[in-house]
Amino acid sequence: MSSHDDASVSPPLVELPINTHDRGFYDGFSRAVTIPSKVIVSLIIMWAIFFPVSASETLSAANSTIISSFAGWYVYLVAALMAVCFLLALWPIAGSLRIGQQDEKPEFGRFSWFAMLFGAGIGIGMLTYSVGEPMAHFGNNPDIIRGTVEPLSAQAVRPAYIYTFLHWGFAAWASYALVGLAIGYVAYRRNLPLTIRSALAPLFGLRMSGIWGHLIDVVAVVATILGVAVTMGLGVEQFVAGLARLGLGNWLLDADGSSSAAAVIVALLVLVGASTISALSGVGRGIKWLSNLNMGLSFALLALFAIAGSGLLGLELLATGLWDYLRTIVPNSLTMFSGGSETGDALVQWQLDWSVFYWAWWIAFAPFVGMFIARISRGRTVREYVLGVILVPSLMCFVWMALVGGTAIDLELSGAAGGSIVEAGISDQLFATLSVLLSEGVANVVFGLVVILLMTYLVTSADSAILIVNTINGAGETEGQRRNHILFWGAALAFVVGSMLILGGIDAIRITMIIGALPFSFVVALMAIAIVKAVVFDLRRKRHGVPTTAEGCADWAGAK
């Protein structure tokens, strides 16, 4: 090989210095990221608490503008993320590259890895939406809007599962996988800080050390807090509904069936308090053990539905749902409904309420889940990482939706439920299904199990989010051991969720999250370009005998 070839192919960037403070309260933290992040989140909280009417009106106006203006952007971005992930996994030479040094072994075994993926990524949503989503599409989906099937009929079940799987399948996990891969690949191969800005180093190099890097990390922190707030809000509502089902008092619910202010405050004190304690113990202890516990409890609940519920119908729905999903994933992922007629306007509204909301939610959730997945995936190959992160949790979601949601639909179709599940609020539909399915005594025991499972999922999500925010603020310091900052973010999360739930319900959190997700969506688009560039250039370096990892670069420099 000629020296000219070596000169034209340079090694990757293996240093990305980020200024951190070296003493006092911000010791080890980037003040340029931490202080603006705290100020922005604190201003959102104060605005919601002290100016609730202004906040509500402004958020609603901004939401309708953003959703209608950027709906197509969200739809096509998520489709592109799926395409990039599968391209990298299925491209043989790219898929064999390792997220780490050349012969590095994974830190966690496969069971713990899958358990942490599932618990942090989607656990709470599964408990809320496993009945709620199939049941909602059973009553209204694009086929029903077009008039081709009747709502709440046997013919409405199959299309209901096409859209349920569309929302909880590859789209969600590809968003997480792409962000995690973009961060983990450069952080562990090139010894760059484990933070959002590092993912863009293949595009922008050392410029990520300065103000643009700070800005990207601030956007990621705010998106994380707002994305996790939606999940926490859903979980708190369902947690309170479960406590009410257990007969712990009328004070838990308001007259309209929503959680009372007192119930929200008590629930948040318990849940965020436990999350903060778990976050202080780090990933290896608190989060790992909680993830394994909630995985075990989830399987127990799933087994109950398989045995006592409509197990055979669930398996049939799983098989037909998978076939329909894979058959329609490309057109459904690229379809943008257009208005102008009564049917067209209804289809557009349905897409905004469901698909676009979900795509924004997954993107807002992606800095947190992506960073967390990167943190626990060191040592795996690109192929194992992508297929593991996308296929296994997606399949678990499908099994859960088919067995749990299928049982609820079967109870309504047979008349056994008498409309009690359809008419329940989304937070109460899982409990409503259990109360029809089981005798009162057994149902109360299972309600208790679901409440404990919700607690473990809520605590896992919140403590993971707190640790990830601290990691971003600490310039990639993975354990983020500064207790005062962990306590601040725990309190901030509680205040965001509490102020929005009490003052505007879950819709207020949803709106705030969709707005917060928009700036980060542009960062995610750049990440997709950056990871493709990083992989292509690494393959080119390998072809020219130039090192692609920090370890290899050190040896190469020493040999020169």
UniProtKB/TrEMBL annotation:
Places the protein is found: Cell membrane
Membrane topology annotation: Multi-pass membrane protein
Transmembrane segments: 33-53, 73-91, 111-132, 165-188, 215-241, 261-283, 295-315, 356-374, 386-409, 429-459, 486-506, 512-536
Keywords: Cell membrane, Membrane, Transmembrane, Transmembrane helix, Transport
Main location: membrane
Family: Belongs to the BCCT transporter (TC 2.A.15) family.
Record's protein name: BCCT family transporter
Source species: Qipengyuania aurantiaca
